[in-house]
Amino acid sequence: MRPNTAPKRKATFVLEETLLAELKQAVKTTGAKSVNALVKTAIARLLDDVRKARRKDILRDAANDPLFLRDLHDVERDFIHADGDLTKDG
Questions:
Q1: Helices assigned H by DSSP within the chain
Q2: What would the DSSP string read from start to end of 13-35?
């Protein structure tokens, strides 16, 4: 989660009554401090999932990118001896 020291700005969202009722019930059952705190946590988790999915897409694309794979191969080749030196004499 992001630090609480970041500037805050009020936002208004329109939710179905049933969803709001579920949120209020979830506050009671999860021990969240408030509906606002629960929504903030849920949004932060969702955005974290979005960022992870984006990184996964980027890595999948890189795995099929001939230029990236060539660069990776070149770096591995250039450092093969340096990596071997790290295992000798601590």
A1: 17-30, 35-63, 66-86
A2: ----HHHHHHHHHHHHHH--S-H
Can you read off the two tokens belonging to residue 84?
A: 């071997």
CB 23 within 8 A of CB 39: yes
Chain position carrying tokens 């019930």 = 25
**For residue 26, which of 15, 11, 36, 16 has the smallest C-alpha distance?**
36
Measure the CA–CA gap between 33 and 27, rounded to whole angstroms.
Answer: 7
For the record, the structure tokens of 67 come out as: 């230029």
Closest CA to 2 of 49, 40, 53: 40
Tell me the per-residue pLDDT of 64-87, one tens digit each, with 9 for 90 and over: 999 999 999 999 998 888 755 555
Q: How far apart are CA 65 and CA 57, in angstroms?
A: 12
